[in-house]
Amino acid sequence: MKRTSILFVGRNSGTSRHRALALGRLGYDVCVVDPFTFLPRGPLASRWTWHTGSLFLEGFLRRRVLASIPPKPFQLVYVEAGEFVGPALVRELKRRFGTVVNYNIDDPFSARDGRRWRLYLQALPLYTLAVVLRDSNVPEAIAAGAHDVLRVYMSADEVAHAPRQLTEEKRSKWSSEVAFIGTWMPERGPFMARLIELGVPLSIYGCRWQKAPEWPMLRAAWRGIGMYTDDEYAAAIQCAKVNLGLLSKGNRDLSTTRSFEIPSLGGVLCAERTPEHTKLYRENVEAMFWSSPEECARKCRELLSDNDRRRSIGLNGRQRCLKNGIMNEPVLAQILDRVGVHANSDKGYHDFSYQRVASSR
Length: 361
What we know:
Radius of gyration: 21 Å
Structural class: alpha/beta
Number of helices: 15
CATH topology of the largest domain: Rossmann fold
Number of domains: 2
Order of helices and strands: EHEHHEHEHEHEHEHEHHEHEHEHHHE
Number of strands: 12
Helix content: 25-40%
Largest sheet: 7 strands, mixed
Strand order of the largest sheet: 2-1-3-4-5-6-12
């Protein structure tokens, strides 16, 4: 039987690649076209996008993307993020293939990312379905012209975030007491510095931490720019006794990918207390929550002193994460079910809760 074909326009790396692979596991024939491969390597292209909204790049990238599409029919075009996908490209993709869906894990309606989302916002009214990941984005997307909006949670991946059997060598390399994996953001520096002042044995992985005004205090806790492979990322989480879950204030997050990846890997999630976190996990049973650095430090000390409690929370958190069903395969299945595209697969995810909002336009 011929498989349903999807053209995936987005990064072939990171969580974007996880979603492309998950579509393949669902039974789709997935062809990935990565617009980022057409740009020069290095930080210049990224800076240009953030400061100008990809000014002068739209036509060039449209031609390169279209030239890279193989001569075959696709039942769906899935656009990941979309900062390089302007209205002309979406119109042409719709003309050729009919259904074009956008999934944006970031917050394109906030001011955090400068002009990065200029083309996305221009193209938004043309998408068959816009998938957003925050409640606040639903009315904002409709106000920006979206005709159909679906709100989902960020999700862990069934394969990338499955627990590994780790060697003693890996355990020794990645072992830590309290770990945070993520990029520096202005609100994170003071928080981390305060944890260190309170005596939390912190390990920080991630980029740009040298920019923090608190860097002299944070330097000793920093263990590198991050993980280059899924296995390294998994090992760092599994080998940490406690994993911090910090939010991006500029992205208006109430949960993040870490909210699902850490429990999926069996790690102990110790995250900021938010309405979404407390809805997803039972506090002190499946995850630990805090509302200040002082409370976070106290929770970390409690966990570090009690091996059995950490083990219990890790096991309970993973079971709850799987029960919630907020994983790539069911989330993607519901997105595509919404637009009437089905794979030749016997996997069924019809009990997953999601929200669909249709514009009155």
